[in-house]
Amino acid sequence: MSEDESEKNYRSGLPGFLGVIDTFLSKVEAVILALGVLLMALNTVTNVIARFVFGNSIMFSGELNRILIIMITFAGISYAARHGRHIRMSAIYDALPAGGRKVLMIFISLFTAAVMFFLCYYSIIYILDMQSRGRVLPALQMPIWIIYVWAPLGLSITGIQYVLTAVKNVMSRDVYLSTTTLDGYKDTETEV
Q1: Who contacts 106 (Cβ-Cβ below 8 Å, separation ≥6)?
Q2: Which residue among 64, 76, 110, 157 is buried most deeply as judged by most CB within 10 Å?
Q3: CA 22 centroid distance within chain
Q4: Whole-prediction pTM
Q5: Which residues, 6+ apart, have CB-to-CB distance to 17 below 8 Å?
Q6: Where do the TM regions start and end (predicted)?
Q7: For 59-113, what is each residue's pLDDT tens digit?
């Protein structure tokens, strides 16, 4: 099954209500990422055509791409956490026996969730500060604070994803990097 098919048919590894939350968040992430990338491509291509065919760029194209990059970035961190594709420095972790790895993974997941919620809190404070200043985007005339709403949304969903990963590790015998990704490395070595 390809990665696109597995994303469409995503099934949470968590039981009951937690599985419903996990599945719902995966659908939200997929829509945000797909829509963001498609809109950015469409906006960029349209702007290039307008520049070369009509001699004028679309005035708000850069601002729209800025909004979409922020949206994709903060939806992407949640996606990476969901699929266990975040960066790991695992020398100590790999040296531990399975029980130690499990305890450490639960701690890492909960600590990372706490950091995500902490960053979410400060991103909300930042947005409120931006809102109080009343600045707007030059071309779109849209309040700047609106484009940063994606930060607390993405950080909170990522935090939730790490909490769900900790729950999955508490409930399971195996060690999981995310609710669906078992710990381990794929053998990617090839002979020359």
Answers
A1: 166, 169, 170
A2: 157
A3: 13
A4: 0.82
A5: none
A6: 31-54, 66-82, 103-124, 144-164
A7: 899 999 999 999 999 989 988 888 887 777 778 888 888 888 899 999 999 999 9
